[in-house]
Every structure is written in C-alpha cells, then in structure tokens.
Amino acid sequence: MVKYGIIYRRAHRGKPKRNEEEIAPLDAAKARERVFQRAAKLLAAKQRSVEELRERLLEGRGATSAIVDEVIARLREYGYLDDAKFAQSYASLRLRERPIGRRRLERDLSLKKVDKQTAGAALDEVFEATPERDLIERAIAKRIRLRGKPKSREDAKKLFDHLLRQGFGFELVSERVRSLLKSDPDDY
Fold first, then answer.
1. What is the chain's alpha carbon radius of gyration, rounded to the nearest angstrom?
2. Are 104 and 173 in contact (CB under 8 A)?
3. Mean pLDDT for the chain overall
4. C-alpha distances in Å from residue 164, one per residue of 106, 168, 173
5. Domain range spanning residue 35?
6. Does position 26 have pLDDT exceeding 70, yes or no?
C-alpha cells in the first residue's frame, strides 16, 4: 500500500511460523545449554539477583525449575551469581548516583528480590562508608541549588516531603529541616 509516497507494509497477523526444530521438544542437555546461554546473556546485560534471574529464566522455552536450579547452582559455583555482592554493589552505585536514604534502598533491593538479611548486611556496610547524615546534607544542598531555600512553611513542607520520599528517616529529616529553618530566621 502506498500513501503519500511512503510504502506501508501490512503487519503479519498471527504467530510467525516455526520450523520443525523449534516445534520438537528439547532434550534435557539441549534445554540445559539453552537456559545456561540465556542466563549468560541476561547477566552480561546487567547484574541480577538470584531470584530475579530465576524468574527470567523460567519464562524461556524449555526451562523447567530443575534445569534453572541446576544452571543457577553452576553460575554460583563460577562466581557469577552472589546476592551479597549484588546488593552491596547495587546500593553503593545508587548512592554514588544520587543521595538517597536507607529506606529507599531497602525497598529497591526488595523489588530486586534480595532477601532482607542480605540487603541489611549490604546496607550496613554501605552506610558505614557513607553516613546518612552526609547523604541528607547532599540531598538538601542539591534541592536548594535547584529550587532555592524554602521561603515559606509550604516550601519547607515540600522539602520535608521530598526528603521522606528519598528514603531518609523521619527524625533525621525533621531535625535537618528544622535546623535549616532556624539558620535563616530573617527569611520567615
């Protein structure tokens, strides 16, 4: 079909035809190799937790839970899968990108399907190197650079809410916002 000098192709309706090799069931060795190759590609694209990788592998063709468990065990053996290393590197990378609080990182790691103990240990290590007080100072400085100092109670509330959304603790946020308001009483 030609319309306005541009050739449009009609999309193929239905599923594409598969060749006989794709239709035939895979033998166990071939399925295992296919799942292992898929795991290698997924891990090459980005680092993943064990459970996150397990879910993605089970979506693939020929993947059974037994084969996936076997592949994951092999990847752990080779050192390609380690939730503790993943959680630690993920948390430290996120903190280098921008200042966020512990609660936000805990939530992000739980979304990445890292268990609470592993996440807690990684966060303890990361926040020992970079205290949350330093991070909240960076977050406040960045917010002030972008929007200016809070000039009213409403602006202070917006800053307060922003810091809570970034995952900083309520007590720490209220302490820092109060001290910010007291440091410049002429503005109020």
1. 25
2. no
3. 85
4. 14, 5, 7
5. 24-78
6. no
In the chain, how many domains are there?
3
Give CA 38 to chain center in angstroms.
Answer: 20
**185 pLDDT exceeds 70?**
no
By C-alpha distance, which of 122, 120, 129, 135 is closest to 47? 122
The b/e string for 130-167 (b: 16+ C-beta within 10 A; e otherwise) is eebeebbeebbeebeeeeeebeeeeebeebbeebbebb
* CB 94, CB 105: distance < 8 Å: yes
Residue 58 is assigned to a structural domain of this protein:
yes
Q: Please state the separation of Cα 82 from the chain's center in Å.
A: 16
Quick check: pTM over 0.85? no
Q: Within a domain: residue 105?
A: yes
- Count CA atoms closer than 13 A to 102's CA, side-chain side: 21
3-class state of residue 134 by DSSP: helix
Q: Considering the domain boundaries, does residue 162 fall inside one?
A: yes
Instruction: Give the model's pLDDT for residue 61.
Output: 79
| Single-letter amino acid code for the residue at 157 | K
How many CB atoms lie under 10 A from the CB of residue 80? 16
| Tens-place pLDDT, residues 140-166 | 999 999 988 888 889 999 999 999 999
The answer to the question of residue 59 being in a domain is yes
